[in-house]
Design brief:
Blueprint: H1 2-6, H2 9-17, H3 24-29, E1 41-42, H4 45-51, E2 60-63, E3 67-73, E4 79-85, H5 91-105, E5 116-120, E6 126-130, H6 137-142
């Protein structure tokens, strides 16, 4: 699946620019590509697979219209939530949803929003967040259990 997604121009560019680095244009003009340096990184599929115990059903914490979320613990002991994009009708739509969310949550800094730690494009499209034991925004707003 990585081959499928890595052929996309937008995903190839995202992964080749280097997270938290200057773009080629910015290097030539000595300007930063963005005013806030990205702190997220690319996770390997093996890392998120191990952290979620193979995406075990006991680690499933949420299911939405276009994604499922699993909790996990990284090798260094950090609690994470792995959001796997699954519901789009086409690979192109799934990729668009992934890039839209990555572009949005990648820049959000707020105490009530789980921080984006990174992503993985191996064997699907995955976003990795800090795990919040307080539940989802929806469950907190509407009083639903996860």
């Amino acid at each position: 699946m990585r081959q499928l997604f890595s052929k996309s121009r937008s995903l190839r560019r995202l992964m080749s620019v280097g997270i938290g680095r200057r773009s080629r244009e910015a290097e030539s003009t000595k300007e930063l590509a963005s005013p806030v340096k990205s702190t997220w990184r690319c996770f390997s599929y093996e890392e998120i697979h191990a952290a979620t115990d193979g995406f075990h059903k006991d680690n499933l914490v949420g299911r939405g219209g276009y994604a499922v979320v699993y909790r996990g613990v990284t090798a260094d002991g950090q609690a994470i939530a792995v959001k796997t994009m699954v519901g789009a009708s086409t690979d192109e739509q799934r990729e668009k949803d992934f890039l839209t969310e990555l572009g949005t949550v990648g820049h959000v800094r707020h105490p009530n929003v789980s921080a984006l730690l990174g992503c993985c494009i191996d064997r699907g499209l995955h976003l990795v967040f800090e795990f919040s034991s307080r539940g989802s925004v929806s469950s907190n707003l509407h009083g639903k259990a996860n």
